[in-house]
Amino acid sequence: MTSDQYAVAVPFYDLWHEDGHVPEIREKLPALVKGSVLEIGAGTGLITEVIADATDGEIFALEPSLGMRSVLLSRLAGRRELLERVTVLPYGALDVELDEPVDMIVMIAVLYSIEDRASLWATLARQLVPGGRLVFNFREREAPTPGDDAEMASYRVGRHTYELWGRTLEVEGERISARFRYVIRHGGEVISEDVVDSVTHRPSLATLVAELTEAGFTREDAPEGLLVWGLAK
């Protein structure tokens, strides 16, 4: 599968995430990583590198977007020692079936994009050894309010400015519809602009606890901003 729905975001991806959750994940995740790892939604490989530096085990980096995978593979090509133990999988989170289970699953900045969480937890449980761990980032926040277009970030790259704009369109329960604009300017003039509508799903912590407990996971201690769940042995 080679979904490229995130293609227009690729030039902005590392700029945005290095200015967001990535530094915190870089600090907190390594102490939790052990053994073989399945990474769900590897993107351009920012977290893949963090995982690879924290374990000598085999890594499966799952990423459905061709654009994102292209950057990920280029990143791996710059670190030749990783080519022997990082396998890049062109699948979505609900489609993965590994040849054998792994010790750990890492899922960073992915949870909100998946609606069918019951299938997600069941799929991930099949990929883990008994006692294996699932780690993902999560912060409970108030639902956003629909409103006007607002600038979320702006980055200067040479003579160009990369701008990310967003607005919430509709909120219905945990379902949030939003519109994002990816704009590149040269001397103030727009030379590239793409618009993407997206839907995310933001469950409460109580909902996640109930779902994961039902799926056979037990919550473990974790650094702030991360959740760690162990699969029953």
From TrEMBL:
Pfam families: Methyltransf_12. Residues 38-134 form the Methyltransferase type domain. This is Methyltransferase type 12 domain-containing protein. It comes from Nonomuraea recticatena.
